[in-house]
């Protein structure tokens, strides 16, 4: 059955304007769309981006001016979210589904417990006492170490490593190269050399967590490192031992979080942020790109640090003046004090 505007809007349970039998054949960006494609726009302030767009149907905000554009429209409170929902309807073949086969080259311990409809790819290794929930997919080259527990409907892409006794919740997605449960960076200085501290904690991952490629989460030294439900982590993130990331927090690429740091719920951490260990950040905090957090954040809000990009010559001038800031501050304070005495 062909997908029409009426049928798509009905499945999304949204109101529409336009020819009900208008056919929808694909999804695309505003730049690359052709006739028959579905696109979306987040806000009417982006109306200028529609110039030259060839799409046939557009998902728009509820307050979109219906008379300003000659396209079929679907009205949504959150157009981006509804576009994602529509993608699963229009392009289901692009969302990979496993055939629940276990490759002959996979090494699966007889002491492991594999649920129904579990797919295990080539050269995967499943060690003793591993539990894997129903409908989970284990990609090629994954290593699941002794005593690990992986929930239902998870997707482990290729080369994921799950350390011993690590727990992964239901419906989690782990992208290529993710490492959960490597040793934390625990050392003690003794007699002029470093001595390794055994890392005997584990890693606990909540339900509906997604972790990007080559991100690493260290196991705890004594207690567990915890990533609560619904967190979304980008690529190339380092999370130190005993850290705790609150539910539904999103972290962009190249972030480093020190050991024993506590990040609140519903936080947003932009790319390149560094968070020192042993501090706490409350719920609903946003950290802008390249910020350096060196003390607790006790109030919700948006926080920034660092210097914006400057032309190199101007940056060198400013950098040279930084050395004079303390002397300048002392001079100003002295002048203010003298002025107060003269009044």
Structure description:
The protein has 343 residues and is an alpha/beta fold. The protein folds into three domains: 5-94, Udp-n-acetylmuramoylalanyl-d-glutamate--2,6- Diaminopimelate Ligase, Chain: A, domain 1 (3-Layer(aba) Sandwich), CATH 3.40.1390.10; 107-303, UDP N-Acetylglucosamine Acyltransferase, domain 1; 318-342. The protein contains four helices and 36 strands. A ten-stranded parallel β-sheet has the order 6-9-12-15-18-23-26-29-32-35, with no helix packed on it. Strands 8-11-14-17-22-25-28-31-34-36 form a ten-stranded parallel β-sheet, with no helix packed on it. Strands 7-10-13-16-21-24-27-30-33 form a nine-stranded parallel β-sheet, with no helix packed on it. Strand 19 and strand 20 form a beta hairpin. The longest helix has 18 residues, at 325-342. The termini are far apart. The relative contact order is 0.06.
List the helices and strands and how they pair.
Blueprint: H1 5-12, E1 16-17, E2 26-27, E3 37-40, E4 57-61, E5 72-76, H2 79-90, E6 107-108, E7 113-114, E8 119-120, E9 125-126, E10 131-132, E11 137-138, E12 143-144, E13 149-150, E14 155-156, E15 161-162, E16 167-168, E17 173-174, E18 179-182, E19 187-190, E20 193-196, E21 203-205, E22 210-211, E23 216-218, E24 225-227, E25 232-233, E26 238-239, E27 244-245, E28 250-251, E29 256-257, E30 262-263, E31 268-269, E32 274-275, E33 280-281, E34 285-287, E35 292-293, E36 301-303, H3 312-322, H4 325-342
Parallel strand pairs: 2-3, 3-4, 4-5, 6-9, 7-10, 8-11, 9-12, 10-13, 11-14, 12-15, 13-16, 14-17, 15-18, 16-21, 17-22, 18-23, 21-24, 22-25, 23-26, 24-27, 25-28, 26-29, 27-30, 28-31, 29-32, 30-33, 31-34, 32-35, 34-36
Antiparallel strand pairs: 1-5, 19-20
């Amino acid at each position: 059955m062909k997908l029409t505007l009426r049928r798509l809007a009905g499945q999304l349970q949204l109101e529409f304007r336009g020819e009900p039998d208008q056919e929808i054949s694909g999804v695309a960006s505003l730049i690359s769309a052709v006739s028959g494609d579905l696109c979306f726009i987040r806000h009417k302030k982006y109306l200028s981006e529609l110039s030259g767009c060839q799409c046939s149907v557009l998902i728009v905000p509820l307050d979109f001016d219906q008379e300003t554009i000659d396209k079929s429209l679907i009205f949504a409170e959150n157009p981006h979210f509804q576009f994602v929902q529509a993608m699963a309807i229009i392009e289901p073949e692009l969302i990979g589904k496993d055939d629940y086969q276990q490759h002959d080259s996979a090494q699966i311990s007889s002491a492991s417990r594999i649920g129904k409809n579990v797919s295990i790819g080539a050269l995967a290794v499943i060690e003793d006492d591993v539990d894997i929930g129903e409908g989970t997919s284990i990609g090629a080259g994954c290593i699941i170490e002794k005593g690990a527990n992986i929930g239902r409907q998870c997707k482990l892409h290729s080369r994921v490593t799950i350390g011993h006794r690590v727990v992964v919740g239901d419906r989690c997605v782990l992208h290529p190269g993710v490492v959960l449960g490597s040793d934390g960076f625990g050392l003690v200085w003794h007699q002029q050399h470093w001595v390794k501290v055994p890392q005997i904690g584990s890693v606990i991952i909540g339900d509906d967590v997604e972790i990007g490629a080559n991100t690493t989460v260290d196991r705890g030294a004594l207690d567990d490192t915890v990533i609560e439900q619904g967190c979304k982590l980008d690529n190339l993130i380092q999370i130190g031992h005993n850290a705790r990331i609150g539910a539904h927090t999103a972290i962009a690429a190249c972030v480093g979080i020190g050991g024993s740091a506590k990040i609140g719920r519903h936080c947003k951490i932009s790319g390149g942020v560094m968070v020192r260990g042993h501090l706490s950040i409350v719920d609903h905090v946003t950290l802008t790109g390249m910020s350096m957090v060196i003390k607790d954040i006790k109030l919700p809000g948006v926080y920034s640090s660092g210097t914006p990009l400057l032309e190199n010559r101007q940056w060198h001038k400013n950098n040279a003046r930084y050395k004079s800031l303390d002397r300048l501050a002392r001079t100003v304070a002295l002048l203010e004090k003298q002025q107060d005495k003269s009044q």
